[in-house]
Amino acid sequence: MVTINDIARLAGVAKSTVSRYLNGGSVSAKTKEKLDRIIAETEYTPNAFAQSLKSKKPSMIGIIIPRLNSYATNEILSSIDEELRNKQYQLLITNTNQDIDREIENINTLSRQKVAGIIILATVITPAHMKAIRSSGIPVIFLGQKAKDSYSIVHDEIEAGRSIGQHAADLGHKKILYVTVFEDDVAVGQLRKKGVLDALSEYKDIEVKVITSDFNYQKAYEQALSYLPKSDATYCICATDNIALAVYKAAVTLGKKVPTDISISGFGGYDITNLVTPSITTVKYHYKEMGRIAVENMIRLIEGEEVLKCITLGNEFQPKESTAKL
Q1: ∠ CA 82-83-84 to the nearest 5 degrees?
Q2: Which of 27, 188, 204, 276 is paired with 143 by a 20 to 30 Å CA distance?
Q3: What is the CA radius of gyration of the chain?
Q4: What sequence ranges are listed for the domain HTH lacI-type (predicted)?
């Protein structure tokens, strides 16, 4: 790989001259012509990360994600990447594998690497998170979870939950199973569940049982194989589309027909919910819009402008084939 030292040696100039040329500084016309030619011949590409570290105005944005195998994460990331490229910023991604300690460590690491700002796809927000953010001295935006003393962009989880809960009630179901996730995840584990239960609580003849599952598809599937045979529920509301897919597979494995024996729905609006038969009822979340707004707000914060502390995005209920009248 050609380095800046190789370019300097081939041109017969100092490394600092090449650096000045690459950063748009002043060099003689003769030197510029020579460097233009050598860089074209060698197909040299400057290291954007190294340039950002040296620049007085960093052009790197750090992003911390909880896991790699997530539809929502991938949708948000692709949107952020496209928007940042259009604004001449580079993206530096770190994965935490849902390890909170690693998440906090990544905040500190990114701030030491002099990124211009950090976007966090959060599952939980702890006092340790906020301490690391205050120490960083750079703009930080949380996506998916509301932070009291920082900037955030969230989905309207309660409204999403209410729409699914109301749908189950409208279809006449009286025994409902709600498969949630751990409550440390305030958005999914608390607010989404609250929306569902609030809607169903308006019907005195509806019985709801709540079970805690896992975001991981395989774990959710294995758990469903255990609790579905013991349940007499005719409708299973799942906290995510991933869990809904796992429950769907478990139901089929156990010989149940969807939606004849059991209706199933999720949250997220993943593309794959349209690829299975029957297609899965869901609430579509606007992940790409979240990524676009995150970049727009981050750039404004970097440039010293003020933005709203919290932005709440709407969602879209999508009834499909996996739910039916009792």
Answers
A1: 95
A2: 276
A3: 25
A4: 2-55
- In 3D space, the residue among 154, 153, 155, 100 whose CA is nearest the CA of residue 131 turns out to be 100
**SS3 (DSSP) at 138:** coil
Joined together, the tokens standing for residue 196 give 């569902």
H/E segment holding residue 316: strand 315-318
Q: How far is residue 24's CA from residue 20's CA, in Å, rounded to a whole number?
A: 6
Q: What are phi and psi of 162, to 5 degrees?
A: -60, -40
CA atoms within 13 A on the CB side of 322: 28
Question: How close are the terminal C-alpha atoms of the chain, in Å?
Answer: 65
For the chain (326 residues), the mean pLDDT of every run of 10, in chain order, is 86 88 80 88 69 62 93 96 92 92 92 90 92 91 93 98 98 98 95 98 97 95 98 98 98 98 98 96 98 97 93 98 96
213: left (phi over 0), alpha (psi -120 to 50) or beta: beta
Report the predicted TM-score, pTM, of the whole model to 2 decimal places.
0.81
